[in-house]
Write a structure and sequence with these properties.
29% helix, 22% strand, alpha+beta, 7-stranded antiparallel beta sheet, ConA-like_dom_sf
C-alpha cells in the first residue's frame, strides 16, 4: 500500500519519488506505519524499495474516471483545433487515441496490433510487476516468510535465500480464495452489520445527549460555586471599605488636632491671644479652661499614638486549604486501571516493567508500581517463608509508562501490579503478572570480532550485540544442494568475556527465519588449539553437519570440538540425544531420530553455566523453564558460543549488553 501512497500523485500522475544522486533533498529511509505507528526502516534505497500497488492505483483511477466523466480524455495524436476525443488507450504505447489514430498507429499484421488497449485512461501502469531490488527481474514467486512477491534472484542469493517460497500462481489462488471467503462472510453478515451500525448510531446520539446534559449540570454546579464566592467577596469588600473609611476619619481628626498646636493657628493661636488680655478677672476665667486643654495637648505630644491602625491584617485571607480542596475535586471519577505490557517488560536481576493506559483515558498525575516475592530459589525453599516473601513493596511515584526495580533475587518468582492516580484518587490495580528471575546473576558480554570471526560471512553491527549470517551467491554455489539451501560449513562467533568461576546467565533472541543456529559454550583451551589447526575436516569452516536439522551431530561430534551446543532453526529447537547426565523437559520425539527431541523455538533463549558444578542449562527465557541440561568440561575459561549456517540472526538481550555498552 505504501508504494501507491508515495508513487501515485494527488493529480493522478505517476511519479518515481525515490532519491536522485546529487539531490539536496535527504533520502527517506524510515516511514511511520499507518497501522501500528512504528517507524519502518526502508533500507539503503529508501522508498524505491517499495512495490507499487497497481491494484490500488487501478481502483483509484476507476473512481477518478467516474468523477471526471464530464471531462473527456483527448487523443494524444490529433492536433488542435481538430483534436478528437480519445476512445482507447494503449498500455504499451502509454498514449490515448481516437478511432482513426488508433487504426493508423496499430495497423493489422504488425506487432503493434498485438498491443494491449483499454478504455480511455490516464493511468498507464507496467504490464508486469518488477522486483524493486533487482530492477530488471520480474517477480515470479511469493515468500511465505516475508509475505511479499520476490524474483528468482531474491531466492537464489538475496535476503530470501532460505525462506520458504511458493509459485505466484499458487499464492494467487490461495490468497484469492481467502479474500473471496472473507468477502463472502462479510456479505452474508450484512444484516448483522446494519444492525450494529444502527446500534452505533443510537450510541452516538445517546453520547451527544449525555454529553450536553453533563455540560449543563457542570455549568450549574460551577455557577453555584461562583455565586457563593461572589457573595463572600461582596461581604468582605464591604467590610474592608467601612473599616477604611472609619480609620481615615479618625486619623484626619487627629491631624486637625495636631495642626492646632502650630503657632498662629488653632489652640496655640487662641492661647497667644488670651495672653494679651489685661483684665485679670477675665483672663483667669478663660485661662483656667485653656490651661487644661494645653496640658492635654502637651501630654498627647509626649506620648504620640495614631488614633487608627493602618494595617488590614485582619482582612488578609489564607485560601490555601480551599485552593487545595478545589484542586483535589475529581470531576472525572476514578481513573481506569493500566495494563502491564508483557511484550515490553523484562525481568532479570533488575526488572523493567512497562504498562499502557486505555486509548480514551483522561490524563493521570502519576503511577505507582508494586511488586512482591512469591517464591525463592527452588534449591532453598526455606527462603519462601522469609519476611519479605508475599509483602507488597511500592516504588516511588512514576510519571511515565515504565519503571525499574533493582536488586531482585535470582531464581525467584515475583508478582507485579500497577495503578494510576488522578486528583488524589487511585484506580484499581492492574491484573497481577508474574515473572521468574534467572537462575543466576546476569553475565554481560558483547560479540567478539577477534577469535574465529569470519567477516566475509558474518555481519556484526557497530554495537557488537547483533550478529547476522547472510547467504550470498558464493555460498549458494558452494552448497551441496542448492534447492534445499544446504550448506557445508558453520560460522562461529564467541563472546568477548569469559567465565572462570561461579554461576552465570545470559539470554538472546534467534530470528525465526534463521536456517540453522547453534548456541552454547566453548572452552578457551580447546579453542586456541582448534582454531590454529589446518583447515581440514576438523576446522570450524567444515563442520561435520549433514545439512539437516536433526541436531544429532551436537552429541556425537562434541568430543573433538570445544563447543557444547544445541541447535535452533526454521522455528524449531533440537535437543540432542539425552544421556545419563542430561535431563530434558517434555517434548515431542523427532520422527527423523528417535533419540532427539523437537520443541517449538522459544522467542528468547537463555543459557546458565554453572562453572563449579560443570553443568550447562538451556532455558526458555520468557518462562524460565529449563529445556535441557548436561555435563560440560570446564577445563579453562568458558565463553558464550554461537554458530550460524545460512541466513540467520542472533541478538543479545538489552540487559546482557547494558553494562558493557555504558563504558
Amino acid at each position: 500500500m505504501w508504494g501507491a501512497i508515495f508513487q501515485y500523485g494527488i493529480d493522478g500522475s505517476i511519479s518515481s519519488p525515490g532519491w536522485r544522486r546529487g539531490s539536496v533533498t535527504p533520502r527517506v529511509t524510515t516511514i511511520p506505519c499507518p497501522g501500528c505507528q512504528h517507524d519502518i526502516d526502508l533500507g539503503e534505497r529508501g522508498i524505491s524499495m517499495l512495490f507499487r500497488n497497481f491494484t490500488l492505483e487501478s481502483i483509484v483511477e476507476r473512481y477518478r474516471q467516474a468523477a471526471r466523466a464530464a471531462v473527456a480524455i483527448m487523443c494524444n495524436i490529433c492536433k488542435p483545433p481538430n483534436q478528437q476525443e480519445a476512445t482507447k488507450s494503449c498500455m504499451d504505447c502509454k498514449a490515448s487515441y481516437c478511432n482513426e489514430c488508433f487504426k493508423l498507429h496499430h495497423p493489422w499484421g504488425t506487432p503493434k496490433a498485438q498491443h494491449e488497449y483499454v478504455g480511455p485512461t490516464m493511468n498507464f501502469r507496467p504490464k508486469v510487476l518488477m522486483c524493486p531490488e533487482h530492477e530488471m527481474e520480474k517477480v515470479n514467486m511469493y515468500c511465505e516468510v516475508c509475505r511479499r512477491p520476490v524474483c528468482h534472484l531474491c531466492k537464489l542469493g538475496g535476503s530470501h535465500a532460505n525462506h520458504k517460497v511458493t509459485s505466484m500462481s499458487s499464492a494467487y489462488k490461495i490468497l484469492k480464495e481467502k479474500l473471496a471467503k472473507s468477502i463472502h462472510y462479510l456479505i452474508s453478515k450484512e444484516d448483522q452489520v446494519r444492525t450494529q451500525i444502527t446500534e452505533l448510531d443510537r450510541l452516538i446520539n445517546q453520547t451527544e445527549e449525555n454529553g450536553q446534559l453533563a455540560e449543563r449540570q457542570a455549568n450549574e454546579h460551577f455557577e453555584r460555586l461562583f455565586e457563593t464566592l461572589q457573595e463572600r467577596k461582596t461581604e468582605m469588600l464591604t467590610s474592608i471599605e467601612q473599616s477604611r473609611n472609619r480609620r481615615i476619619d479618625q486619623l484626619k481628626g487627629q491631624v486637625e488636632e495636631y495642626r492646632g498646636m502650630l503657632e498662629n493657628s488653632g489652640l496655640v493661636g487662641y492661647a497667644q491671644e488670651v495672653l494679651k488680655e489685661t483684665d485679670q478677672s477675665c483672663f483667669v476665667q478663660t485661662a483656667k479652661q485653656l490651661h487644661v486643654r494645653i496640658q492635654k495637648a502637651t501630654e498627647s505630644l509626649k506620648t504620640f499614638h495614631p488614633s487608627a491602625d493602618p494595617s488590614f491584617d485582619e482582612f488578609v485571607l489564607d485560601t490555601s486549604k480551599e485552593e487545595t480542596l478545589l484542586k483535589e475535586m475529581c470531576f472525572g471519577g476514578v481513573p481506569d486501571p493500566p495494563l502491564i505490557d508483557l511484550s515490553h517488560s523484562k525481568v532479570y536481576n533488575e526488572a523493567s516493567i512497562c504498562w499502557r493506559l486505555p486509548d480514551d483515558h483522561l490524563p493521570t498525575d502519576h503511577h505507582v508500581l508494586e511488586y512482591r516475592k512469591l517464591g525463592g530459589p527452588s534449591q532453598s525453599p526455606s527462603l519462601e517463608g522469609s519476611e519479605d516473601s508475599g509483602v507488597w513493596r511500592a516504588t516511588d511515584r512514576v510519571y511515565g509508562s515504565s519503571a525499574g526495580v533493582h536488586d531482585l533475587e535470582p531464581d525467584s518468582l515475583y508478582a507485579f501490579r500497577v495503578r494510576s492516580c488522578r486528583n488524589s484518587m487511585f484506580s484499581p490495580y492492574s491484573p497481577e503478572v508474574s515473572f521468574h528471575t534467572p537462575p543466576a546473576p546476569i553475565f554481560s558480554f558483547l560479540f567478539s570480532d577477534k577469535c574465529g570471526f569470519s567477516p566475509e560471512r558474518l555481519i556484526l553491527n557497530s554495537r557488537r550485540d547483533t550478529v547476522e549470517s547472510v547467504a550470498g551467491m558464493a555460498v549458494l554455489l558452494a552448497a551441496e544442494r542448492v534447492q534445499t539451501g544446504s550448506y557445508i560449513g558453520l560460522d562461529y562467533i564467541i563472546g568477548d568475556t569469559g567465565i572462570s568461576q561461579g554461576r552465570h546467565y545470559w539470554a538472546f533472541k534467534v530470528e525465526p527465519y534463521s536456517y540453522m543456529v547453534k548456541v552454547g559454550v566453548a572452552s578457551d583451551t580447546k579453542l586456541i588449539e582448534w582454531f590454529h589447526n589446518p583447515r581440514d575436516t576438523s576446522s570450524p569452516r567444515y563442520d561435520h553437519d549433514s545439512g539437516h536439522d536433526s541436531g544429532s551431530e551436537d552429541a556425537c561430534y562434541e568430543l573433538s570440538q570445544p563447543f557444547t551446543l544445541i541447535t535452533l532453526g526454521m522455528g524449531k529447537l533440537i535437543i540432542p540425544k539425552a544421556s545419563s547426565s542430561s535431563s530434558v523437559s517434555n517434548a515431542n520425539v523427532s520422527s527423523g531420530d528417535p533419540g532427539n527431541r523437537v520443541l517449538p523455538m522459544p522467542q528468547h533463549l537463555g543459557i546458565c553455566l554453572d562453572y563449579d558444578a560443570h553443568r550447562v542449562y538451556f532455558y526458555d527465557a520468557n518462562t524460565m523453564r529449563c529445556l535441557f541440561e548436561r555435563q560440560v568440561d570446564c577445563s579453562g575459561t568458558m565463553f558464550p558460543a554461537f554458530g550460524l549456517m545460512g541466513s540467520g540472526k542472533v541478538q543479545l538481550e538489552e540487559f546482557i549488553t547494558a553494562k558493557k555498552l555504558t563504558f
